[in-house]
Write a structure and sequence with these properties.
20 helices; binds phenylalanine; mainly alpha; single chain
Length: 487
């Protein structure tokens, strides 16, 4: 099993996974769409009482099982490995369109550098986004094939400090803008009257899990590379606070700009690619600020994408005994093929599924509902179906903390996730705060449920095939060759 080179390397890699488009773009947009500071209270509760405990749980499981989400599920019951593959499939599908958005941020970075002003509609209608998607996917594949230390850890150790440093400089600059105090009022003034809205709570929980990359096996994979000396609870707290800090910093950058230039704070997806560029175009030093902003967004997206790919690469290596390079190459090729329809959905090809751009369709189904489904499986299977979990948790994180985390992951977290997901499915409301991509086209609750059911069934079928392949004579042969090669 590969290992992180140090505790700091592990924490930075996990921060790299957590800090992404979700913090810098989605958090301010969801907050804007939910009445500003009011949203912070449910968000903080979701982060510290649900996402953080589940993160500790997931990392501890990873270190205990020393494997991937597939082998961890297999240790509970052999057939449960199907669920592991299914979760890999969910994350892989999210990755396929996440890379498209990451490509957009790269494009806007280049526009800022060259000083070109282009509307999002014109940009996305061309072929450039498809090229940028391919470039980003290849970059992700190359880093992952570099390995845990030389690829993932090195990249995060470089990009995370640069990104956070740049965001701090941007935030300092924004304190000088005329709209700074209005922006801060909007961000930090709580409005207790809206706390009764279940949809606000649903939005907060969705955002917390998405932003912390929790509940989908990525942290389980990263936890397996951690040393026994690593204190998991302390590391989890640092990762959580860093993720929250970057989200708030982004708010401190974005809202003063929005208010200084008389723009709308609740502009959804438009926020990053339409609203902010309008402000950048007229503010002093706007080009440099825009370049810095989009570069940070791209770096953050890249380190998150790396973690999504690593999870499946690790699962393939483990199950088929492939080399890291081979697994990374195969999955990069696969993600290029899988993401192509999403990349084309905004281009001149205008690829749609049932009248909805493919990217929006995937986001509304698998992006919005796939993640809670994965987290529910993770929490329930390892607590309800696996009695040693209580003791292994005590060994990994200490008995005192295990006494709190275990019941939270057994009852409270699954209940909260099931309730918020059910509310989301039951409500036919077009509610922007509940989507991963704010501003994306709402596809309607029925199509959303049909879509998720179809995708999950397809993923399950593919997982069964993957499990069979793991047992097929060819795979057995490969194993024998490997063993011979090693001896
Ligand atoms: N946490 C990342 C973000 O905030 C997104 C992500 C989701 C990463 C799921 C990994 C898995 O953008």
């Amino acid at each position: 099993m590969e290992r992180w080179s140090s505790g700091a390397g592990f924490i930075l890699a996990a921060i790299g996974s957590a800090v992404g488009i979700g913090n810098i773009w989605r958090f301010p947009a969801v907050l804007g769409g939910n009445g500003g500071g009011a949203y912070l209270i449910p968000y903080l509760i979701a982060v510290f009482f649900c996402a953080l405990p589940l993160m500790i749980f997931e990392l501890a499981l990873g270190r205990h099982f020393q494997g991937t989400i597939v082998s961890a599920f297999r240790s509970v019951r052999h057939p449960f490995r199907v669920f592991g593959w299914m979760i890999c499939g969910i994350v892989f599908l999210i990755l396929s369109y996440y890379l498209v958005i990451a490509g957009w941020t790269l494009g806007y970075f280049f526009f800022a550098l060259s000083g070109e002003r282009i509307s999002f509609a014109d940009f996305s209608a061309g072929w450039l986004p498809v090229v940028l998607f391919a470039v980003t996917a290849l970059a992700t594949g190359i880093v992952v094939s570099g390995g845990v230390r030389k690829g993932i850890e090195r990249m995060s150790t470089l990009l995370i400090p640069v990104s956070v440093g740049t965001l701090i400089i941007l935030a300092l600059y924004c304190t000088t803008l005329p709209g700074f105090s209005r922006g801060m009022d909007f961000l930090f003034t709580p409005d207790f009257t809206v706390l009764g809205s279940p949809l606000l709570w649903g939005a907060a929980f969705g955002q917390a899990f998405f932003s912390l990359s929790v509940g989908m096996g990525i942290l389980l994979t990263y936890g397996a590379y951690a040393d026994r000396e690593q204190a998991i609870p302390a590391a989890s707290l640092i990762i959580t606070v860093a993720d929250l800090g970057v989200a708030l910093l982004s708010g401190i950058v974005i809202f003063p700009i929005v208010f200084s230039f008389g723009l709308a704070p609740a502009a959804g997806a438009e926020l990053a690619f339409t609203t902010l560029p309008q402000a950048f175009a007229v503010m002093p030093g706007g080009r440099v600020i825009a370049a810095a902003f989009f570069l940070v967004l791209f770096f953050a997206a890249l380190t998150s994408a790396i973690s999504m790919l690593e999870m499946s690469v690790a699962a393939l290596r483990e199950s088929f005994l492939w080399s890291r390079r081979r697994s990374a190459a195969v999955l990069t090729a696969a993600v290029l093929a899988t993401g192509l329809p999403s990349a084309l959905s905004y281009s001149a090809a205008d690829l749609r599924f049932d009248g909805i751009p493919v990217l929006d369709f995937l986001d509304e189904t698998i992006g919005t509902l796939g993640l809670p489904v994965a987290a529910i499986f993770l929490a329930i299977v390892f607590t309800w179906f696996f009695s040693p979990t209580r003791d292994l948790l005590a060994r990994e994180i200490g008995n005192g903390l295990a006494r709190i985390i275990y019941p939270l992951c057994t009852y409270i977290i699954p209940a909260v996730l099931i309730m918020t997901t059910a509310a989301r499915m039951a409500s036919g409301v077009d509610y922007p705060g509940l989507r991963n991509l704010p501003g994306s086209e709402f596809i309607g609750p029925l199509l959303q449920i049909e879509g998720i059911v179809i995708i999950i069934l397809l993923l399950l079928a593919a997982s069964v095939v993957a499990c069979r392949l793991g047992r097929c004579p060819l795979a057995g042969r490969l194993r024998t060759w490997r063993r011979r090669g090693n001896s």
